Amino acid sequence: MENRPDTPEAPRPAERPKRRRRSTGTYAAADSRRAAIIEAATLHFARAGYLSSSLAKIAADAGTSATVIVHHFGSKEKLLMAVLVAREERNYLRVHGAVPHDDVREQFRAVLALAAHNLTEPGLIELFAKLSVEATDPAHPAHAFFVTRNEGAAGALAASLRAALAAGQLKPDIDPDQIAREILAVSDGLQVQWAISRGRLDFLADYRAYLDRLTRALTADGHGLD
């Protein structure tokens, strides 16, 4: 027979918050530990690359053990995916979380600021460029990540362009989705070239010149980024 709240077998109301607090505390501790591991892994992958980064060293910097990392993430490969997802979330907030969506110049300046920040993590750029090419194979473990990432990044840029179009900032005949894909392709392509050149390519100068030309071509007043 199903217990009712007023039966002796049912937990007393005073006991319920105590169990929820323990459960919430456990989840919070697990989330905090995962965040610390991802942060440590990001630093290691950025500095030494994926292959040269060991779970033991990452665990030591995160204040835990390699066994705990495997418990939370399953493998070093899946930890890499978690690092890439966290990076994309931070990148989205840097570009779309702090500037007006209907101001194309501010959006493009935020994109440039993000590119400048990413250059401080050359190992992650090289890793990202390498994986993005390898992941064209549907069997690659990072394939689904890059499909989702490309659709999300292009979609967010297209939404900002549509907002700027609705605000009258852009010429009426533009295609926000096509332009968003172009911006993403130029950014990713320059990152691959930068990685191949071992940093000799002036990525920021080339990317800024492209976005300035694009701004002049798109905007109703024909002005660039400055």
CATH superfamily of the largest domain: Tetracycline Repressor, domain 2
CATH architecture of the largest domain: Orthogonal Bundle
Rg (C-alpha, Å): 23 Å
Shape: elongated
User: Strand content of the residues, in percent?
Assistant: under 5%
**Which parts are unreliable, with pLDDT below 50 for 5 consecutive residues or more?**
1-22
- Helices, by number, come to 9
What is the domain tally? 2
Structural features, described:
This protein is mostly helical and 226 residues long. It has two domains: 1-74, Homeodomain-like (Arc Repressor Mutant, subunit A), CATH 1.10.10.60; 77-226, Tetracycline Repressor, domain 2, CATH 1.10.357. It is built from nine helices and no strands. It has helices at residues 15-48, 55-62, 66-73, 76-96, 104-118, 122-134, 143-166, 176-196, 203-218. The termini are far apart. Residues 1-22 have low confidence and may be disordered.
Condensed summary:
The radius of gyration is 23 Å and the shape is elongated.
Record the SSE blueprint.
Blueprint (H helix, E strand, L loop, with lengths): L14 H34 L6 H8 L3 H8 L2 H21 L7 H15 L3 H13 L8 H24 L9 H21 L6 H16 L8
Helix pairs in contact: 1-2, 1-4, 1-6, 4-5, 4-7, 5-9, 6-8, 7-8, 8-9
What labels describe this entry?
Arc Repressor Mutant, subunit A; 2 domains; mainly alpha; 226 residues
